[in-house]
């Protein structure tokens, strides 16, 4: 059977609403219990403002920010029909206002009424369901959202032999970040399993969060973050990639992806030996490689921080992730010295990542004016893994042997991006996916590949040296 046959509704395009397929359902509001009788308009949250600025700088290539999840329906409830999924998704959007929030002029967030979700349908033969779901996800992610007129959640189902086997969700980044999407998928699974309840009290909604961020406590947190950003911006390089060094051939933005089991094993060994996480190891190593490639002794990176350390943000479906500012001296010759310097620098970055983008912009402007040049690192780090595997003290010989299985590919290219150099970390089976998305005018493709191979070598060599010191100390 041909994959993807029978798409009944357009799921990747800009579905307008509410229309005939979006008839309002006046269900009880998830916060107050009162019926929602009209849209609710509130300011954007800090996280929404941060991603909105990135979207505006990337458009019309802002489909870059779309992302999806696939929920494989448990076999115990494999008799689900499309109506069951539609009902569960409707209850999901009742519970989480972000999933029915559009963006109005200002910009502001406009929380819409409950509405019947549009569901795209494809059919698959047995054994092909997962592949068809992946194809459907890619298709649904391939076009930018209409932020004003389209609900920020696209839904598709894969039907096999008359029942729903997979549910595909594609999120607008204005509605959720990666951790928020995981909460939404968890709740949808419960709604399907328990036939109508996700359990637990409703979480904080973005409109409520925006009000808290504008409170006295929110303003106090924002001022502390502003002071940190301005202080650090007074001493870092004005940019990690300050000058154009090449002309692009074709689209200027490219992504290189290194899939490496050796890097995963080395990072785990270093984490065990230093009592750290693999995320901390990879952040420190990435900063060291940026310093090596650029010749800068002080590295400034913008790690993406989840900002879910507060009770009012922990279980919210919204976009809370914001950039932190990680500033670290990367001149240390030994990796343990580098990691020792990176730890407090990372804590400072995480503490002040929960910030008001307007205050950060003002602090940036003041620092730039004082230095006579725009201060902007243009250097990002995003560990997109939701959990780390149990750390293991691999033998150096095992790590070195795994180098032969590493692969490097070039999965995407496009015309615009809001940054010049972005590192993404993902889990790839037993290995790591380490990708660099870069503006090749500032770091050519050969430099991107050299950076990735150099990072892998740095980790493997550091793990071997740490092992040698451990044997010598013993």
From TrEMBL:
Residues 1-40 are annotated as: Disordered. GO terms for molecular function: catalytic activity; phosphopantetheine binding. This is Non-ribosomal peptide synthetase condensation domain protein. GO terms for biological process: amino acid activation for nonribosomal peptide biosynthetic process; lipid biosynthetic process; secondary metabolite biosynthetic process. It comes from Spongiactinospora gelatinilytica. Residues 56-354 form the Condensation domain. InterPro entries: CAT-like_dom_sf, Condensation_dom. Residues 1-13 have a biased composition (Basic residues). One of its GO terms (cellular component) is cytoplasm. Pfam families: Condensation (PF00668). It comes from the Bacteria.
């Amino acid at each position: 059977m041909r994959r993807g046959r029978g798409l009944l509704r357009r799921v990747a395009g800009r579905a307008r609403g509410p229309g005939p397929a979006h008839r309002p359902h006046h269900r009880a509001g998830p916060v107050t219990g009162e019926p929602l009788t009209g849209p609710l308009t509130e300011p954007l949250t800090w996280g929404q403002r941060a991603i909105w600025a990135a979207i505006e700088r990337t458009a019309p290539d802002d489909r870059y920010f779309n992302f999806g999840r696939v929920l494989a329906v448990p076999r115990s409830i494999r008799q689900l029909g499309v109506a069951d999924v539609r009902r569960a998704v409707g209850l999901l959007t009742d519970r989480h206002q972000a999933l029915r929030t559009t963006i109005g002029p200002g910009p502001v967030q406009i929380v819409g009424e409950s509405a019947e979700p549009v569901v795209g349908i494809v059919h698959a033969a047995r054994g092909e369901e997962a592949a068809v779901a992946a194809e459907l996800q890619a298709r649904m992610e391939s076009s930018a959202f209409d932020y004003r007129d389209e609900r920020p959640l696209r839904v598709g189902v894969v039907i096999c032999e008359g029942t729903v086997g997979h549910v595909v969700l594609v999120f607008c980044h204005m509605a959720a970040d990666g951790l928020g999407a995981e909460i939404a998928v968890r709740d949808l699974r419960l709604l399907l399993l328990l036939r109508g309840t996700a359990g637990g009290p409703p979480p904080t909604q973005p409109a409520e969060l925006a009000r808290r961020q504008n409170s006295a406590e929110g303003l106090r947190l924002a001022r502390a973050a502003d002071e940190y950003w301005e202080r650090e911006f007074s001493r870092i390089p004005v940019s990690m990639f300050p000058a154009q060094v090449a002309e692009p051939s074709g689209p200027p933005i490219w992504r290189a992806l290194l899939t490496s089991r050796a890097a995963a094993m080395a990072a785990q060994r270093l984490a065990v030996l230093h009592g750290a996480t693999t995320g901390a190891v990879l952040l420190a190593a990435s900063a060291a490689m940026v310093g090596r490639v650029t010749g800068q002794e002080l590295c400034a990176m913008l790690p993406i921080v989840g900002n879910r350390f507060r009770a009012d943000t922990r279980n919210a479906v919204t976009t809370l992730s914001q950039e932190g500012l990680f500033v670290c001296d990367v001149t240390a010759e030994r990796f343990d010295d580098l990691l020792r310097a990176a730890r407090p620098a990372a804590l400072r970055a995480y503490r002040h990542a929960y910030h008001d983008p307007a205050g950060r912009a003002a602090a940036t402007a003041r620092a730039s004016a004082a230095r006579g040049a725009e201060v902007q690192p243009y250097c990002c780090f995003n560990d997109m893994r939701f959990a780390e595997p149990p750390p293991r003290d691999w033998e150096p010989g095992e790590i070195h042997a795994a180098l032969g299985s590493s692969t490097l590919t070039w999965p995407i290219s496009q015309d615009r991006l809001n940054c010049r150099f972005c590192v993404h970390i993902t889990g790839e089976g037993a290995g790591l996916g380490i990708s660099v998305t870069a503006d090749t005018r500032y770091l050519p493709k050969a430099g991107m590949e050299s950076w990735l191979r150099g990072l892998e070598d740095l980790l493997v060599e550091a793990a071997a040296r740490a092992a040698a010191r451990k044997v010598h100390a013993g």
